[in-house]
Amino acid sequence: MAVRPFDLCTKLRIGKLEIRSEPERERRDRRNTWSRTLNLYTPHLETFVQAMHPDGGWGYAPGQTPQLEPSCLGLLALSLDPARYSDQIERTRRFIEQNASADGS
């Protein structure tokens, strides 16, 4: 979809781009692209979830105690398919909340 500069400015609302009157074909193509991308990553995410620590979160290597940095990155990875990994996302969030310092470190 070609966007002229002034169109982009009028479509920005509080930091997000609102897509107006996007043709159906472009919406369908975008959904298909997302679906193909997700299908590409799903086997890796499944392997990744299997390496999750029972208490939530991940260590720097499989079998290590969970740490904040790899757990935050894991949370980001699982956000590709939040419906499928909602349990793991919630366990990781609890781990992060329990182990993060008050200053966020």
Strand order of the largest sheet: 1-2
Task: Categorize the overall geometry.
Answer: elongated
* Number of strand elements: 2
Give the fraction of residues assigned to helices. Answer: 55-70%
| Separation of the first and last Cα atoms | 41 Å
* Order of helix and strand elements from N to C terminus: HEEHHH
Number of helices: 4
Alpha carbon gyration radius: 19 Å
Largest sheet: 2 strands, antiparallel
Which structural class is indicated by helix and strand composition?
mainly alpha
Chain-averaged pLDDT: 77
Residue fraction in strands? under 5%
Query: Regions with pLDDT < 50 over 5+ consecutive residues?
Result: 3-19
Notes on the protein architecture:
The chain is mainly alpha-helical and 105 residues long. It has a domain at 37-99. The protein is built from 4 helices and 2 strands, in the order H-E-E-H-H-H. It has helices spanning 5-11, 24-50, 68-78, 86-99, and strands spanning 12-13, 16-17. It has a two-stranded antiparallel sheet with strand order 1-2. Helix 3 runs antiparallel to helix 4. It is elongated.
What does the secondary structure layout of this molecule look like, with pairings?
Blueprint (H helix, E strand, L loop, with lengths): L4 H7 E2 L2 E2 L6 H27 L17 H11 L7 H14 L6
Antiparallel strand pairs: 1-2
Helix pairs in contact: 3-4
Highlighted features:
105 residues; mainly alpha; 4% strand; elongated; disordered N terminus
Short description:
By secondary structure, the chain is mainly alpha-helical. The chain has 4 helices and 2 strands, in the order αββααα. The chain has a domain of 63 residues.
